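hey m, so remember when u said the tokens were messed up on ur end? i reran from scratch. heres the input so u can diff it against urs
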Amino acid sequence: MTAITRRHATRLETVHVTVPDEAVEAYESALASVCTTVGIFEADDTQTVWRIEGVKDAGIGEATLMDALALAAAATGIVAPLERHETEAEGWLARTYESFPEQQVGRRFAIRGTHLAAQAGGPRITLTLDAGIAFGSGEHGSTRGCLRALERVAYRRPTRILDLGCGSGILAMAAAALLHRPVLAVDIEPWSVRVAAQNAAMNGLRNQLVCRHGNGWRTPDIRAAGQFDLVFANILARPLCMMARDLGQHLAPGGTVILAGLLDSQVRMVLAAHRRQGLVLEHQMVEGYWATLILRRPAARA
């Protein structure tokens, strides 16, 4: 079984914007609308200005990108000029491989690229991903935080599990492999759903992941499932706040949610939205500038 690999028939280019903290989410989403990979980097020592950088096929998706940038500017009130430069496809892929060594996360997990030689056995659960399409590949602080959070709550043995905004499927696969339970993995991007399904097959988890294309909590499979014992939502701070009410309705009594994709500075905002739904903070952890929250719905009283 081989991983999905993108072949670049056109030239690649790197595009980036520099924005303050409050505009990061909107502009990250704008670049992600057309870019194969998007990264966020500290632009100065204040941790308030960020460089958002993406790699895309040169000349492809220009109208979509311009529309997305205009929406980001309208939503934030901040106009960030787009800068770009040509990137050699072969060199970019080589650098991607070089920057994606095995990632050991927490006590239980190891994330490996398909470009690395397979290793037999070992005490960790090893998940293999294609570095050529590396999003949700284990090196990002929010992904690492979610995996560490999963280790903390695994003793509860949840049976109904949802990965909302699954991306590469890494969190769904980690939960399926650790808990030996089926996981519903949902994403709004069709490409992400295909990649998640392919990754599940590559890791021998085809029968444990149900990968579906859908729009958040409106997804028919989510509505049909009712309530969940464990939910991953590694998205962005403001969408998390907007979906807090739906999450509260779909989280079973005693259920746990792991929230990520938010900067440390956005924790108070996200917590406030979910506390209004009756959820209680159990633990908070930070990886770099990224925060992960473990919240729980109190169990129903007899």
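this time it looks ok to me. The CA atoms of residues 35 and 93 lie 14 Å apart. if urs says something different then somethings off w ur setup not the seq
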